[in-house]
Design a protein that fits this description.
single chain; 290 residues; alpha+beta; four-stranded mixed beta sheet; binds glutathione
């Protein structure tokens, strides 16, 4: 097999035409590629994002905060099209030097505060509103442990399993086996935890659930990378119970729609600038079918 015989050269060379699904946006350098200011709307929070699992964590958090009675959590959600390279515009890089969605400007105080990394954004908002983060030391430690578990684990699921199973230009048995095994191990970690407690961090719904659901709930529903059958996700009964429970929450249903650019047009609210947008500005209403 040609891959097994590959000998790395002395010095790695960037091959733009590697044939992978995201070859057009991947590059080995950071920093902006062009000047572009970011728009600013009327609300205290300005979110620059896209409805991928990492993006959904933050839109679910905002919708849950609003549903829980925190009107100060009103937000504008602007669309960042990562396929077109919007994440490399100078304004976006100013908010997130790592050029990845989601990125947040908190304009609720005297000076704007930038926050990047979805886990940091969830923690920032939880602390700001005193919501979805237990305040007793043991509950807080459990919640943060699972939050950081998610941030550290999901790259094996997405960048590892998802990339080699669904996006790589060639199917490499070694890579798919390695990351399928790790993904199943992670699903088992969650399944065992959810046999012990209703929610991830205990008996309360927290930012740990909000972080974990968009990745592992999508996986449990079989929608991520269309790998439900391959990974036999229905076997994880406690994870399935929790997934159905979280998916039914009104804030989660709304949060999953924001900045979404795929699927049923009625589920796509590409930009969100007002609570009423869910009724009036979904894609089926903006571009009705002929
Ligand atoms: N660790 C980051 C990961 C963010 C991330 O990987 N974002 C992806 C979309 S899900 C992205 O913006 N990719 C664009 C790129 O890599 O150029 C977080 O949790 O916020």
């Amino acid at each position: 097999m040609a891959d097994a015989e590959f000998t790395p050269p002395k010095v790695w060379v960037f091959n733009k035409e590697n044939g992978g699904r995201f070859a057009n946006i991947n590059r080995p350098t950071a920093g902006p590629t062009h000047d572009k200011e970011l728009p600013v709307g009327k609300h205290p929070f300005q979110l620059y994002s896209l409805g991928t699992p990492n993006g959904q964590k933050v839109t679910i958090m905002f919708e849950e905060l609003l549903a829980a009675g925190h009107p100060g959590a009103e937000y504008d959600a602007w669309l960042i099209n990562i396929g077109e390279g919007d994440q490399f515009g100078s304004g976006f890089v100013g908010v997130n030097p790592n050029s990845k969605i989601p990125a947040l400007m908190d304009r609720s105080g005297p000076r704007p505060i930038r926050v990047f990394e979805s886990g940091a954004i969830l923690l920032h908002l939880a602390e700001k509103f005193g919501a979805f983060l237990p305040d007793d030391p043991a509950g807080r430690a459990e919640c943060l442990s699972w939050l950081f578990w998610q941030v550290g684990s999901a790259p094996y699921l997405g960048g590892g399993f998802g990339h080699f199973y669904a996006y790589a230009p060639i199917k490499i048995e070694y890579a798919i086996d390695r990351f399928a095994m790790e993904t199943k191990r992670q699903l088992d970690v969650l399944d065992r935890r959810l046999a012990e407690s209703e929610y991830i961090a205990g008996d309360q719904y927290t930012i740990a659930d909000i972080a974990i659901f968009p990745w592992y709930g999508n996986m449990a529903q079989g929608t991520a990378y269309e790998a439900g059958e391959f990974l036999q996700v229905q076997d994880y009964k406690n994870l399935q119970r929790w997934t159905a429970q979280i998916a039914g929450r009104p804030g989660v249903k709304r949060g999953r729609m924001v900045n979404r650019v795929f699927g049923d047009p009625a589920t796509q609210l590409r930009e969100r600038h007002d609570a009423s947008d869910f009724e009036t500005r979904t894609q089926d209403k903006l571009e009705p079918a002929e």
